[in-house]
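for the writeup, i need someone to sanity check this before i put it in the appendix. the sequnce is what the collaborator sent (i think, or maybe the updated version? ugh). structure was predicted straight from it, no edits. if anything looks off just tell me and ill rerun, i have time this weekend
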Amino acid sequence: MFLKQKKIFVDIFIVLCSLSFVFVAHAQDLKDAFGNANTVAVSGGYDTGVSAESMIAKIISVVLSILGVIFLILMIYGGYIWMMARDNEQEVTRAKNLITAAVIGVVVIVLAYAISFFVIQNVTKDVFKNDSSWEESEPDLNL
């Protein structure tokens, strides 16, 4: 009887987990939903306005999203190991170490992103500030 309830619980858990990864279409992202429309627009003479900064930002966003999913999977796996350990202290220690490593990993990733974002914002603000001394001017020939 206990095995049947456990199987039903695991099946429901798997179905809920698979349904929780449904992606939502945001209105501002629909311009990217058409695949090669960007290439067609460029060949037709329209500027798409995609800059290197926006491409790098999208890549970083995707990588951070994947790392977040990996963190979630590790947390669920560590919790599952801990729940199934029963009285086995080695398994409990293994689960605690896995959860601790996952949390430390996500903290390191978030701190690295925050520090690099802060440094890049301050460096670009200082280097590319709108200062008249950087602009080219006509030389004064009336001496």
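Residues 52-128 form one domain. The two ends are 102 Å apart (CA to CA).
thx in advance!!
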